[in-house]
């Protein structure tokens, strides 16, 4: 059975309003600098301490952002400044301002918004980076067929992030690869709860339940995957196969036709559509579908089976009219 499988954070800093810290600043009238500090959601951050240091002279200028997150430095002397933006609960931001050209007149400078990242956001970024590496390792091992290695990789991720959907999904895939379908159901079900719109998890659940001989749950899982991803030909094939086995021929044919809309030359879908037509007594349509399946099939055993089936149908339709009805 076929079952293919199918995820940036802005770091920044905050700013604040101003009160010049150095009384000797009045003798310099070179730069008027203004800007704003915001968070990752672009909301202003107040009470951010903006500190400027001129390493060449050790002069320092400080101020805090106002309620709008804005700061202004008026009459700033020319220099190359090391700038920090600090507030409790945020990661300290750093920048370099190069105002090294002397100015005869006041030069206005609008600094682009400074974005500060909260400490909780920074921790989430670090967690995500660790999770990403573990998930990528698991994916690589799955591609090589190293299912035990994939399980080991995702379990390390899940020890730190037990509700990580990608890690849970790859854990389920690894269990499927080991044919441990009952074990795979647990993480895959959790993925559908955490990410209900992820069709791959529903599809893989369908695979597991079919192997566990629970046709009802398997069909429901495949149907859910098709609801989310109607163009998934494999989901349509598997859903149609269960319906065919339950003698729900019209519904099965509808699923095979749905799959053929995405993969019109798929030999498995063509074969099953042909077999549905046989059940419905539409032998001419069955022959057309089976002959297309025979042409598209590269599997020797399937080709031999289709040759036999087509020969029998031709014998049955000999001397009949359209749709297998007797000629008048």
Report on this structure.
This protein has 328 residues and is of the alpha/beta class. The chain has a domain at 23-117: Immunoglobulin-like (Sandwich), CATH 2.60.40. The chain has eleven helices and eight strands. It has helices at 119-143, 147-160, 165-177, 181-194, 199-211, 215-228, 233-245, 249-262, 267-279, 283-296, 300-317, and strands at 31-38, 49-54, 59-64, 70-76, 79-86, 93-99, 107-110, 114-115. Strands 1, 4, 7 and 8 form a four-stranded mixed beta sheet that branches. A four-stranded antiparallel beta sheet has the order 3-2-5-6, with no helix packed on it. A hairpin with a 4-residue loop joins β2 and β3. The protein is elongated, with a radius of gyration of 33 Å. The model is unreliable at 1-28 and 321-328 (pLDDT under 50).
CATH class of the domain at 23-117: Mainly Beta
Order of helices and strands: EEEEEEEEHHHHHHHHHHH
Query: What radius of gyration results from the CA coordinates?
Result: 33 Å
Percent in strands: 5-15%
How far apart are the first and last residues' alpha carbons, in Å? Answer: 44 Å
CATH topology of the domain at 23-117: Immunoglobulin-like
Number of strands: 8
Number of helices: 11
The rough form would be described as elongated
Q: Which helices and strands, and how do they pair?
A:
Elements: E1 31-38, E2 49-54, E3 59-64, E4 70-76, E5 79-86, E6 93-99, E7 107-110, E8 114-115, H1 119-143, H2 147-160, H3 165-177, H4 181-194, H5 199-211, H6 215-228, H7 233-245, H8 249-262, H9 267-279, H10 283-296, H11 300-317
Parallel strand pairs: 1-7, 1-8
Antiparallel strand pairs: 1-4, 2-3, 2-5, 5-6
Helix pairs in contact: 1-2, 1-3, 2-3, 3-4, 3-5, 4-5, 5-6, 6-7, 7-8, 7-9, 8-9, 9-10, 10-11
